[in-house]
Amino acid sequence: MSISLQFWDWLHLLGHFLSLSLLAIGGAITTAPDMHRYLVVEQHWLTDGQFTASMALAQAAPGPNVLFIALLGWYVGLNAAGGSGMPWAWAWGLLGTAITMGGILLPSTTLTFAATRWAYQNRERLGVRAFKAGMAPIVIALLGATGWILSASQGSAAESWRLWLLTAVVTLLVWRTRIHLLWLLGAGALLGWLGWLG
Amino acid sequence: MRPTSKSDLFWSFSWLALQGFGGVLAVVQRVLVDQKRWLTREEFVEDWAVAQILPGPNVVNLSLMIGDRHFGLSGALLALAGMLLFPLLIVLALAAAFASIADLAPVQAALRGMGAVVAGLITATGLRLIGALRSNPMGRTLCWGLAGSTFAAIAMLRLPLVWVLLALGGLACTGAYRAIAQLEAHKNARQEAP
Predict the structure, then answer these.
(1) Residue A1 located in a structural domain
(2) CA separation (Å) from A64 to B17, B71, B87, B91?
(3) Using CA atoms, how far apart are residues A1 and A77, in angstroms rounded to an integer?
(4) Neighboring chain B residues of A47 at a CB cutoff of 8 Å
């Protein structure tokens, strides 16, 4: 795919990601639908396949899931260069990455830095203590809910019982033992690769 | 325990980010609480609550908070860099080299297998943190009621996170406020009595 981006288009891209940053409560992934609307449907800067590949690659690679946004910028850059085979395509890719990651991170990290510094300096205040104590059961339950939603997304327990079984075994092992997490991830990948998970 | 130096901070976050396939949270809890003991389980839950409420990627927020606490602004930036730098290079290299194999059937199946493991990792992280509720001023009944309602609202009813946090979170903070105020009043009354 080949597109032509002017200076103002890059600025627009930066502005859009800056504006999404403070809306990303619960993680950057919550703004993915809007990024799809903007980049694929509205501006035609990315293909559907490139958008999906960004999500899949970021899932497969180590690190925070927010890196799918780096890949979105990378592909916009490649498209602006006229395709991945063109000279200097990687430089345009890096420019796109810097713009999308900078945009999504700058406002939220600045706010986090200021807010958590204030909260730490005022940690003896009743309001701050109440916030932390009150939120504790809620964020713990959110972890359980996230695990549940991820399990449910792999299909019903009757149909994909092998995947559910794997999830249950991993849950028990991580909860009760100190087994290294990389072994478990490797085992999951291997079982899948061999076709034993259905 | 605390990071011995800024480079310890940077490399610790780099190393744990590189182990975090499908999300870094489970590894963060393992490494920072169980292994390095930079945080107690209770402190981790408190920090995680703050990181989760603020906008932006949760683990990125958490790394900023921990870096800032130990080494100020430069610590925050180093922890953030550790969390993002090497994973970013890897994911870009993957995109440049292997984008085309992501569609192959065995690769897809391997990713599904890793997805099932990640679901287990996150659930187990939640289970491991339940012990942190024992010292919660709200008491056992209220804690379990709030946790159960949150789970039902998000996992079963699939309500939007923002509304759940506003409604149940607001309720929880009010409950905690009253519980702590009561405990303090008791303590003061006891101190004043001869």
Answers:
(1) no
(2) 7, 22, 8, 11
(3) 11
(4) none
Residue of A nearest to B119 (CA): A147
**Residue A198 located in a structural domain:** no
**Segments forming the whole domain that contains residue A103:** 7-118
Please say whether the beta carbons of B67 and B84 come within 8 A: no
Q: A138: distance to nearest CA of chain B, Å?
A: 5
In chain A, DSSP assigns E strands to none
Rounded-to-integer distance, Cα A39 and Cα B7, Å: 38
Question: Do A19 and A79 have their domain in common?
Answer: yes
User: What does each of the 194 residues of chain B score in pLDDT, given as a tens digit?
Assistant: 899 999 999 999 999 999 988 778 889 999 999 999 999 999 999 998 889 888 899 999 999 999 999 999 999 999 999 999 999 999 999 888 766 666 678 888 888 888 889 889 889 989 988 988 998 999 999 999 999 999 999 889 988 877 888 899 999 999 999 999 999 999 888 887 76
ipTM attached to this prediction? 0.85
Q: Given an 8 Å threshold on Cβ–Cβ distance, is B24 in contact with A64?
A: yes
Q: Are residues B97 and B35 in the same domain?
A: yes
Residue-wise pLDDT for A54-63, tens only, equals 887 887 789 9
**Same domain flag for A153 and A56:** no
Q: Mark whether A90 and A64 lie in a shared domain.
A: yes
If one counts the domains in chain B, the total is 2
B145: closest chain A residue by CA: A137
pTM score of the predicted model: 0.85
Contact B95 A21 (CB under 8 A): no
Which A positions 105-124 lie with beta carbon below 8 A of chain B? 105, 107-109, 111-113, 115-117, 119-120
Domain that holds residue B80: 1-103+128-135
B157 touches chain A (CB under 8 A): no
- Helix, strand, coil shares, percent, chain A, to 5: 75, 0, 25
CB B130 within 8 A of CB A140: yes
Task: Verify that B158 and B89 share a domain, yes or no.
Answer: no
Q: Within this chain, do residues A161 and A112 fall inside the same structural domain, yes or no?
A: no
- Give chain B positions within 8 Å (CB) of A129: 176, 180
In chain B, residues with a C-beta closer than 8 Å to the C-beta of A141 are 126, 146-148, 150-151, 154
Interface of A with B in 32-51 (CB under 8 A): none
The total number of structural domains in chain A stands at 2
